[in-house]
Write a structure and sequence with these properties.
The complex is a heterodimer of chains A (354) and B (610). Chain A has 354 residues and is of the alpha/beta class. Chain A has helices at residues 3-6, 19-29, 47-59, 106-119, 144-156, 175-179, 191-205, 213-220, 225-238, 252-266, 270-285, 290-304, 307-326, 330-353; strands spanning 37-40, 67-77, 80-90, 94-97, 132-136, 161-167, 182-185. A 7-stranded mixed β-sheet of chain A has the order 2-3-4-5-6-1-7, with helices on both faces. The N and C termini of chain A lie far apart (58 Å). Chain B is of the alpha/beta class and 610 residues long. Chain B folds into 5 domains: 53-219, Rossmann fold (3-Layer(aba) Sandwich); 225-272; 288-402, Zinc Finger, Delta Prime, domain 3 (Up-down Bundle); 415-527, no CATH class; 537-609, no CATH class. Chain B has 25 helices and 8 strands. In chain B, the strands form 2 sheets. A 5-stranded parallel β-sheet of chain B has the order 2-3-4-1-5, with helices on both faces. In chain B, α6 (142-148) links the parallel β2 (113-118) and β3. Chain B is flat and about 90 Å long. Classes of the chains: A alpha/beta (354), B alpha/beta (610). The interface between A and B is large, with 86 and 80 residues. Chain B: Keywords: ATP-binding, DNA replication, Nucleotide-binding, Nucleus. Chain B: Belongs to the activator 1 large subunit family. Chain B: Pfam families: AAA (PF00004), RCF1-5-like_lid (PF21960), RFC1 (PF08519).
Chain lengths: 354, 610
């Protein structure tokens, strides 16, 4: 088993990072009930781990007995019937799904499917009416309409159903939904915390980790705990015993993005833009989400950029990122950003160096 | 109907005129300066007068019709339809104005058939009651009357009677107002006792798909430009106007094979008494590639906005893609003077921005049905980039991404989802080892998974390595396909792939080991439960009931569509059965019995059997 999964804390009292959050959650559910929850924070900070530990806290070990179901839902949308295919992960007490997988039909998922699930109230052992937990992932990817239809559902079925929403950024969740939830911010763990976790794993695995090695991984991981653990194991596969100056393998796609960035910095011409387009397509077909590409590309460019341009470039990146979410064809927006950058940078170069 | 027949009689009187040269003169003499449309006036009066298409096939078919069907039927073997070339109907197809209707009529006349024409102006909807009842039925339509009326058909010994042919014009228009018309027509073809000629513009259209199984397809081609010009010249001479050959050829070229339109144009111009031949060309189909060429042409700034919209609307799906594909390839004439490419880059940035705009507009159109935005979308996707960047083409490289890239992406996402599900359900239903998002799987896990799966193959000795990898794969329910997908998804152009440096024998050993190995733990996507989710029927207790319900519903839906056809079918069948031997007996029995007591499923099955 991978270390990420092996050393994932299973209960709320065993977590290493975010102990304060865990304690609060524990208090919250000690009565056996909880409000709607919205977990938000960057990826790799431990949202899912906490949610799963929370479910275990409420329902006991039966929350672990999950099955994966691939269902085609028939949704009646006025004049026509729409088939929505969704993969759900469910136990007797909770259902986990990715409503944004339904694309722009996510509205129907929220309107109908969640309603259906919420209507079925489970009865617990004592014959009391219990509640079911619905875990919705990637809420920030939900369309505006879907979020609007979510809010009424949240109120109407609050007796039988708790929603646990999980998203990377709270800014993309509408105000209305946020106010109906208890917001739990899970911040990215500090580098020291990551080092602690890595050393804990090294101890458990009986590995000798040289001084400062864990710190280097933590620094590389960009405060993403999952990535740190995965990188740690990658290093282990690559070379053991560790040496102090061992190269830490970068993520394949990150490397590719940084290649694109240096391509862009080196030459600003239509020809280069054309090549960059090809590389961007390559990334997209490899299932790298376009937002991630854009963000990473911006960071790589900012590293090499003169400080006076940084503000403007970031501004444009934000502009195109926003529009990318409104649109469908990510490549157009990525390309537009690259073209914009080339034009800005080229005029800067010419005005500075003549 | 009588009206038609009368009209046709009149036309039939002059069938015997033969030479085309004569025709023009005759027309001119008989009605000088009348205001009949030339298209009517110069409609060919004999087969020879039809230009551009050979009439032999249809003549042959019509000639042999009687032998094939009537005689065979009277001998008692009613169904020899499988015989190639022995379809009971023909389908003439081709673009408008090239003489399909005229040809059908002329051929019929030539072979001394009486023609009955039914076109879109007649009601051809599905009749309510059984066909056989003909005119006696409640709303039986005239077609059925025609095809079944013994009086009209020629086979009952009244050899002095004229034979009849039914021409059904504009078949493709039938779907609109005439509900169930096509299905009914098929039924009509089956029981028809007279030949039927169907005429349509596009025989590949969806509505006609079922009909095509019963028809002999005959395609009409556009007549050649020279042929048309020659004919136009004859007409012009007959009308006494002076037009140069070149002008006529130009006209023929512009109307793109549409003879009717050419004649109309010619008449119009002659009325205007000007030598200037014609104002605008027919809206032709411009190929998207040509449209791009024109939009980005060096002289494109002279184009009017209407023309540009026409160009980019020539294929509103493909042209924007081609624009996006190609806009980098042009050296804009407006930025020709600077060497540094700075101007060009900034123009490109503006163009790219505008293309991105069009994406947003397309979302509005597609998702929220804001169709009024489509001109705006067209302007921002094609016209703005083109007007910014039009100029000299500089070919960088010919790569056609277009939508192919999109479909690969879709496929890869599906594969990733499969892998995701496998990882999620690893360890069976009992416990759950990992819970991660799909994106994180790609972003974070892949490097390690790839390493875990391939590194041992490179370093360790063969057997140990294989065992190592297989164990790991099993513990995470990674199937061989998933393994391939991981390799595929972490492949970047120009970078070494994961499997580079792995010896082929190790690879082979791995596959072998995997095929033998423990599959018990592996969940395949086919094993996943895929249930038809039922929205309203949550109260239904058992799953089997649900699926049965769905099935029944589906079948009844299908049946509603084909119900009429089915009914018709049985009727005809019964008739055939009565006429022929007992070979169909068992089938008939089942159909009859099921027809009554709502055993619709089996009815439909019987239909399919046919």
């Amino acid at each position: 088993m991978l270390w990420v999964d092996k050393y994932r804390p299973k209960t709320l009292d065993k977590v290493i990072v975010h102990q304060d959050v865990a304690q609060n959650l524990q208090k919250l559910v000690s009565e056996g009930d909880c409000p709607h929850l919205l977990f938000y924070g960057p990826s790799g900070s431990g949202k899912k781990t906490l949610i799963m530990a929370l479910l275990r806290q409420i329902f006991g070990p039966s929350a672990d007995k999950v099955k994966v179901e691939n269902k085609v839902w028939k949704v009646d949308a006025g004049t026509r019937t729409i088939d929505v295919e969704l993969t759900t992960l469910s136990s007797t007490h909770h259902v986990e799904l990715n409503p944004s997988d339904a694309g722009f039909q996510d509205r129907y998922v929220v309107q109908e499917i969640i309603k259906e699930m919420a209507k079925n109230r489970p009865i617990d052992a004592k014959g009391k009416k219990g509640f079911k937990v619905l875990v919705l992932n990637e809420v920030d990817k939900l369309s505006r309409e879907a979020q609007h239809s979510l809010r009424r559902t949240m109120e109407k079925y609050s007796a039988s159903c708790r929603l646990v929403l999980c998203s990377n950024s709270s800014s993309k969740v509408t105000e209305a939904v946020r106010s109906r939830c208890l917001n739990v911010r899970i911040n990215a763990p500090m580098e020291e915390e990551i080092v602690n976790v890595l050393e804990f794993i090294a101890k458990k695995e009986g590995l000798q980790s040289p001084q400062g090695f864990a710190a280097r991984i933590a620094e590389k991981s960009n405060r993403n705990l999952r990535r740190a653990v995965l990188t740690f194991e990658t290093c282990r596969v690559q070379q053991y015993p560790f040496t102090n100056n061992q190269a830490i393998p970068p993520m394949d796609w990150e490397q590719y993005v940084s290649e694109i960035a240096s391509d862009i910095m080196k030459e600003q011409s239509p020809k280069r833009l054309f090549e960059v387009r090809g590389k961007l397509y390559e990334l997209l077909t490899n299932c790298i989400p376009p937002e991630v590409i854009l963000k990473r590309l911006l960071f790589e460019l900012l590293k090499k950029l003169d400080s006076e341009l940084k503000h403007e470039v970031s501004n444009w990146a934000a502009h195109y990122e926003h529009r990318m979410r409104l649109g469908q064809k990510a490549i157009f927006h990525l390309e537009a950003f690259v073209a914009k950058f080339m034009s800005i940078y080229k005029s800067f170069l010419i005005s500075t160096f003549g | 109907m009588l009206k038609y027949m009368r009209g046709l009689k009149a036309a039939g009187d002059e069938t015997e005129s033969s030479a085309t040269k004569m025709l023009a003169a005759k027309q001119l003499a008989s009605s000088p300066g009348t205001s009949i449309a030339w298209t009517q006036k110069y409609r060919p009066k004999a087969i020879i007068g039809i230009i551009g298409n050979e009439m032999e096939q249809i003549q042959h078919w019509l000639k042999n019709w009687d032998e094939h069907f009537l005689k065979a039927a009277s001998k008692g073997k009613g169904k020899i339809q499988n015989d190639s070339g022995a379809k009971k109907a023909v389908m003439l197809s081709g673009m408008p104005g090239i003489g399909k209707t005229t040809s059908a009529k002329l051929v019929s006349q030539w072979l001394a058939f009486q023609t009955i024409e039914v076109n879109a102006s007649d009601i051809r909807g599905k009749a309510d009651s059984k066909i056989k009842e003909g005119i006696g039925g409640s709303t039986a339509n005239s077609i059925k009357e025609c095809v079944t009326n013994e009086f009209l058909s020629a086979n009952i010994g009244r050899s002095h009677r004229q034979k009849t042919v039914l021409i059904i014009d504009e078949v493709d228009g039938m779907s609109a107002g005439d509900g169930g018309g096509v299905a009914d027509l098929i039924a009509v073809i089956k029981i028809s006792k007279i030949p039927i000629i169907c005429i349509c513009n596009d025989r590949y259209s969806q509505e006609l798909k079922s009909l095509m199984n019963y028809c002999l397809p005959i395609d009409f081609r556009k007549p050649a430009k020279q042929q048309m010009a020659k004919r136009l010249k004859q007409v012009a001479n007959a009308e006494g106007i002076q037009v140069s050959e070149i002008a006529l050829e130009e006209l023929a070229d512009r109307v793109d094979g549409d003879m009717r339109m050419a004649l109309n144009q010619l008449q119009y111009t002659s009325l205007a008494k000007s030598q200037h031949l014609l104002s605008r060309s027919k809206d032709e189909d411009i190929s998207p590639f040509k449209a791009i060429e024109k939009l980005f042409d060096f002289n494109a700034k002279n184009l009017k906005i209407d023309q540009r919209i026409d160009l980019s609307m020539s294929d509103p799906d493909l042209v924007p893609l081609l624009v996006q594909e190609n806009y980098l390839n042009y050296k804009p004439s407006s930025a020709s003077k600077d060497d540094s490419d700075l101007k060009r880059i900034s123009l490109i940035a503006r163009a790219a921005d505008s293309i991105a705009d069009s994406d947003l507009i397309n979302v509005q159109i597609g998702r929220y049905q804001q169709r009024q935005l489509s001109p705006a979308g067209c302007i921002s996707s094609c016209i703005i980039p083109a007007s910014l960047l039009h100029g000299q083409r500089k070919i960088l490289e010919q790569v056609c991404w277009l939508d192919r890239q999109n479909s690969t992406m879709g496929k890869n996402y599906r594969n990733l989802e499969d892998l995701h599900i496998h990882l999620l359900s690893s360890g069976g239903l009992a416990s759950r080892k990992s819970h991660l998002g799909r994106e994180n799987l790609r972003l974070d896990y892949f490097t390690l998974l790839g390493k875990k799966l391939t590194d041992p193959l490179r370093v360790l000795p063969k057997d140990e390595a294989v065992k190592n990898v297989v164990d790991f794969k099993d513990s995470y329910s990674i199937s061989q396909e998933d393994f391939d997908n991981i390799v595929e998804l972490s492949k970047f152009k120009g970078c070494p792939t994961l499997l580079d440096g792995v010896r082929p024998d190790v690879k082979a050993a791995l596959t072998k080991a995997y095929n033998q190995g423990s599959k018990s733990n592996v969940i395949r996507s086919t094993d996943l439960i895929t249930l038809p989710g039922i929205k309203k029927d949550f109260k239904n207790s058992s799953d089997t009931e649900d699926t049965a319900d769905v099935e029944k519903k589906l079948q009844s839906d299908r049946l509603c569509l084909s119900w009429k056809g089915f009914q018709v079918n049985t009727d005809w069948w019964l008739e055939a059965f009565a006429g022929s031997g007992s070979s169909n007996g068992s089938d008939k029995g089942s159909t009859e019995s099921s027809g009554e007591r709502g055993g619709r499923g089996s009815g439909a099955a019987a239909k399919r059997k046919r």
